[in-house]
What does this fold into?
Amino acid sequence: MLELDTVTAGYERRAPVFRGASLTVAPGESVGLLGPSGCGKSTLARVAALLHRPDAGRLVLDGTEIRAWRHRAPRELRTAVGVVFQQPRTAADPRLTLAEIIAEPLRATGRRTEADARVAELAPAVGLTADLLTRRPHEVSDGQLQRACLARALTLRPRWLICDEMTAMLDASTTAALVAAVEAYRTETGAGLLAVGHDRVLLNRWCDRTVEWKDCLPAEDTP
Amino acid sequence: MNAADPTVLRALAAVTAGGPPATGRGRADDAVLSVRDLTVRFRLRGGRSVAAVSDADFDLGAGECLALVGESGCGKSVLASALLGLLPGNAEASGTALLADPSGAGPTDLLTADEKTLARTVRGRRVGLVPQSPAAHLTPVRTVRSQLEETVRALTGTPRRARRKAAEDAAERAAFPGGHLDRYPHELSGGLAQRAATALALIGDARLLLADEPTTGLDRELVDRTVDELRRHVDEGRGLLLITHDLAAAARVADRVAVMYAGRIVEIAPAPRFFGPTGPRHPYARGLLDALPDRAFTPVPGMPPELSALPDGCAFAPRCPLATDLCATRPEPRAGVACHHPEHPRA
Ligand code: SF4
It folds into this structure.
């Protein structure tokens, strides 16, 4: 279970972006969080991805309450969650090739030797050809770079996947292809999904259930 | 511009003959913009070149919205840059893009006009640009109000005391909240920055509006408001070229749809037929619609080809379910579709 229990979060001394938000995602479940831009749902996605420390409330992952926060949660917990953001250009290091971007999490965790095999597995799953893997971000389209960012989120075989507006910049065909890649991964691994976005039609089609963000809180969080 | 050039004569004939036939909601009385054989190549080191746009042909009428749709990297933004004279130095453009002149002077060929003409009389005045990245379009050190007033002054010559009101009216037209007028661009959300940029684009009384991905990153409600606002200006008699990957936005406002694939316009169709039960005729256009989440939600298999290594035949052939040997030769556009085996409309 991925559980946010009355979480409040914000930045430094400013007023919290949201207060008392509660949301749960069961193992293998896909939940869509729908809300307008600027409502704080991206901050909630960062909290759920264990990248942003909440100011109050509890965050529980597979039964373990996450307490030992510095800026982020401890690495061994973070690797259980993969995350994809809206803007691949800001999420990917422009100096790396797509293959290196996909292998980054393995290098960061000292498992460099597994990199080639894992990249070879993931590239076809997200629709990247061998030729594209040798290029750097400025040599590929947004859609191709986002495919690499999705692959990178799957590199460590996370049990949870957070997609924050993953397809907001992409055309219909690339959107359908990336969603299909996420769903193939979830079918294979049983991973849970939190998809955050503003496109109601897309999230209704993609997810088991959707939660509406109302008055700066996810409302109607009932299965 | 060489008036004896047959391409130019053809384009001129299209302008004087009254442009494209009326389709959909907006009636195209006369072409605001007439594009013929527009081709853009980027030269790369090592003698290679990128075929970003090839042989684009279309007319855009007054009171008409033409949506140019396609995947990122298909050439649609390059086409927009070519029309504004904003191509980088290693690009070569050929063909013609005639912008009608309401004052009765002859049309201006946007591809051969010099930078002075483009900067002084075209961009912002005769062509309103609704940009893709408002952040780059707004001056960071000035408030939205001061930028609107300055643009009102530069483009319309409104006397000082009326400028404040004119700027506020422009903001309101673009649904930019009056209470945020005294903010700087960095104090605005993406949606509000986009509306500020739209307000700027609408100040000059340009007859041609060019919107390059004006709704990227906006939520659906804001997308609807932005495109409805653009539509209102179309209904007042402007022509709008809407470049977008958002098919729902195109369906909401366009009179006609042009689909671009690998640098070529592969189909131009009236929007009601394109989005209606009959659907498009080109297999790629059909695949694009099938990818929508309220339709089959299945992607077009594979990825588009590199624009630096296009095949001789139909560029869609490797992904096309209908490809035959015939497709090894490039299909010429016929009746609005460039395909050897187009789907026949059932209607
Ligand atoms: S020309 Fe052939 S390959 Fe190209 S779209 Fe038509 S049927 Fe498909």
